[in-house]
TrEMBL record:
This enzyme's EC code(s): 2.6.1.52
Lineage of source species: Bacteria, Pseudomonadati, Spirochaetota, Spirochaetia, Spirochaetales
Family the entry assigns: Belongs to the class-V pyridoxal-phosphate-dependent aminotransferase family. SerC subfamily.
Gene Ontology CC terms, in alphabetical order: cytoplasm
Gene behind the chain: serC
Name listed for the protein in its UniProt record: Phosphoserine aminotransferase
Gene Ontology MF: a single term: pyridoxal phosphate binding
Pathway recorded for this protein: Cofactor biosynthesis; pyridoxine 5'-phosphate biosynthesis; pyridoxine 5'-phosphate from D-erythrose 4-phosphate: step 3/5; Amino-acid biosynthesis; L-serine biosynthesis; L-serine from 3-phospho-D-glycerate: step 2/3
Subunit structure as annotated in this protein's UniProt entry: Homodimer.
Length: 360
């Protein structure tokens, strides 16, 4: 079997041991004579998997007891509207940092439900940098401040976080569980699973009890955080396969030394590729402020874009997939999520050096 180096931005590469375990268990889960995805979500076997995954989220992040872990469907995209449905309303105000493509979508949905005050807009710098966290101050009436911890398309990432008066809410879809976090500085953290946590179909939502308690109760059951918090995310049928796989990914993260261990590996991988950009003497360009460049999604362009096609064709020949940049940015993007091995980053860096030498 020849596994390729998968640089797709999402859905994205998963740890091979996780895929192999899923394969081995799929037809007959632990001698049940059926698959876990064919059994009731109220079965003892599923219950263990479900609550095991919740416990692992708590232990990996070191979550204090006053936070709930929820598994919700609809992707991070549904959170863009579920958050303001629950926490905003007519006359209520939210604060946002507009850091790029994903922040913009969250802002657009929040505006439907309440007021949005943008504290920092990256427009003037084409979303290539972020504000100094210590300069971020929420307005007195704000219900919350929303940030995007890693802009998956633009390739910028908060390296530390603002400490704010209003609760801090972060979309961490593309860097959740990639590094240790000061969780107590957040009111809420959410992430679609399909970048760092597993297959698509489930969204991890972590929320402080006081925010769940003060949320709007006048909503349909599925749209209320309290419904999911009070039922341990078993109010209705959960996305069983996605949660099952997510639990295995979390076990794999533990085996990599937890979040501190994973962060070390992620830094090293990113360094290898950023070094390749810098070492080629202007042949490659990184459009982002180096102080906030992402360890997860490395965006770069060729100084001579006429070589783009040939560059990309060469990566495919060497078994490297998914390097084409997002259509809104162009150029290239290497997504180095947790499951990307160091060898993948090294293979890309070597190719970049060879390509630059050939054409430089
Ligand atoms: C991928 C992504 C999303 C969208 O996630 P869905 O689960 O597809 O809705 C939102 N925010 C960020 C930062 C992302 O990377």
């Amino acid at each position: 079997m020849a596994r390729k180096f998968n640089f797709y931005a999402g859905p994205s590469t998963l740890p091979l041991p996780v895929l192999e375990e899923l394969q081995a268990e799929l037809v007959d889960y632990k001698g049940m004579g059926l698959s876990l995805v064919e059994t009731s979500h109220r079965s003892k076997e599923y219950d263990e998997v479900h609550n095991g995954a919740i416990s692992k989220v708590k232990s990996l992040l070191g979550l204090p007891d006053n936070y709930k872990v929820m598994f919700i469907q609809g992707g991070a995209t549904m959170q863009f509207s579920m958050i303001p449905m629950n926490l905003l309303g007519p006359g209520k105000t939210s604060n946002f940092i507009n850091s790029g493509a994903w922040a913009k979508k969250a802002i657009a949905d929040a505006k439907i439900y309440g007021d949005v005050e943008v504290l920092y807009d990256g427009k003037d710098t084409n979303y290539t940098t972020l504000p100094d966290p210590s300069s971020v101050k929420t307005t007195p009436s704000a219900e919350y401040l929303h940030i995007t911890s890693n802009e998956t398309i633009g390739g910028i990432q908060w390296k530390s976080f603002p400490k704010t008066e209003a609760p801090l809410i972060a979309d961490m879809s593309s860097d959740i569980m990639s590094r240790p976090l000061p969780v107590e500085d957040f009111g809420m953290i959410y992430a679609g699973a399909q970048k760092n946590l597993g297959p698509s179909g489930v969204t991890l939502v972590i929320m402080r009890d006081d925010l769940i308690a003060k949320a709007n109760q006048n909503l349909g059951a599925y749209l209320k955080y309290a419904t999911h918090a009070d039922s341990d995310s078993l109010y209705n049928t959960p996305p069983v396969f996605s949660i099952y796989a997510l639990g295995k990914v979390l076990t794999w993260i533990e085996s990599q030394g937890g979040l501190a261990g994973i962060e070390k590996k992620n830094r090293e991988k990113a360094q290898v590729v950023y070094n390749a950009i810098e070492a080629a003497g202007g042949f490659y360009k990184s459009p982002v402020d180096s102080a906030v460049r992402s360890d997860m999604n490395i965006v770069f362009t060729l100084a001579d874009s006429q070589l783009d096609k040939e560059f990309l064709a060469g990566t495919a020949e060497l078994g490297m997939l998914g390097l084409k940049g997002h259509r809104s940015v162009g150029g290239f993007r290497a997504s180095l999520y947790n499951a990307m091995p160091l060898e993948g980053a090294k293979a890309l860096a070597q190719y970049m050096a060879d390509f630059a030498k050939k054409h430089g």
